[in-house]
Amino acid sequence: MLVFPNAKINIGLNIVEKRADGYHNIESCFYPVGWSDALEITLDEKFSFQSDGIAIPGNASDNLCTKAYQMIAADYPLPPVKIHLLKSIPIGAGLGGGSADAAFAIKALNQHFNLEISFKKQLDYARRLGSDCAFFIPNKPAYCFQKGDVFEDIDLNLKGKWIVLINPGLHISTVEAYSGIVPKRSVDDLRTVLKEPIENWKYKVKNDFEATLFPKYPLLEEIKKALYNQGALYAAMSGSGSTLFGIFDVEKDLTKHFADFTVWQGLLD
Ligand SMILES: C[C@@](CO)(OP(=O)(O)O)[C@H](O)COP(=O)(O)OP(=O)(O)OC[C@H]1O[C@@H](n2ccc(N)nc2=O)[C@H](O)[C@@H]1O
Ligand SMILES: Nc1ncnc2c1ncn2[C@@H]1O[C@H](COP(=O)(O)OP(=O)(O)O)[C@@H](O)[C@H]1O
Questions:
Q1: Is 99 annotated as a binding residue?
Q2: pTM confidence score
Q3: Gene3D superfamilies recorded for this chain (predicted)?
Q4: How far apart are CA 201 and CA 245, in angstroms?
Q5: Atom of ligand 2 nearest to the CA of 239
Q6: What is the ipTM of this complex?
């Protein structure tokens, strides 16, 4: 079975408070984007995990795909499989690529082996692997809160808008990014602000990680400004970085303009 785990962006990200378990409660709109890995699961004589494309830190047993398989195999009679991942989504990039791989592995195993795991149980499994992971089970625009692992539908349709993602190649660890944050409650409700015209978001829709990471990595703010100079209706960093994105009304080819970086561009669904 072949599936294509896709990335996400965060449109607005408020880091509200530190929790007793050390994590943070956040408020964010998660939106799927088309930048994707390829994940193939086939029957084999013994379990194996192998990846090509972008090198993933850690060994096969650390990979979230292996963890997803082992977690499901502990509760269901799964045969041995070979998992092959072609990694294309940058790592430590604020795009949730590892979480997407894990969630798509859960969905693929469930479907391919007719396990009949309920939607709610798939969400619970995903939550065990990472805060971002559950979002990728339904994989549709959502207002996410608590650890980012609880969500509700959001009335936001960007279908047909053009998105450009710029990854400058800095690996920013999520732990490092959260450790520099002083949490604070947001003044405006993100769901309300996102109902305003997209041109207004520039002044009201903030990613709290930008305030600590832009001074540390000035290149990130330069890329955000460059996206606005190119006519973006809205530009921001995704998650804990280092990917920046710009949303445009018209198709834009910025590959030459950002030739030093990895660029992905396409239509939003
Ligand atoms: C920042 C966000 C925004 O969407 O995305 P990325 O930039 O990583 O894509 C997420 O909150 C990242 O979620 P995810 O990458 O799944 O994080 P996890 O594996 O659960 O946690 C990694 C570490 O990040 C911190 N963490 C994560 C989530 C959260 N709500 N509060 C936290 O403090 C904790 O230190 C935790 O040990
Ligand atoms: N399949 C995977 N793809 C990417 N990273 C993975 C994967 N499995 C485990 N990881 C680990 O997760 C870490 C970051 O995950 P990733 O989702 O790419 O970053 P981010 O949360 O910033 O989007 C990496 O440092 C890597 O060691």
A1: yes
A2: 0.97
A3: 3.30.230.10, GHMP kinase, C-terminal domain
A4: 14
A5: 22
A6: 0.97
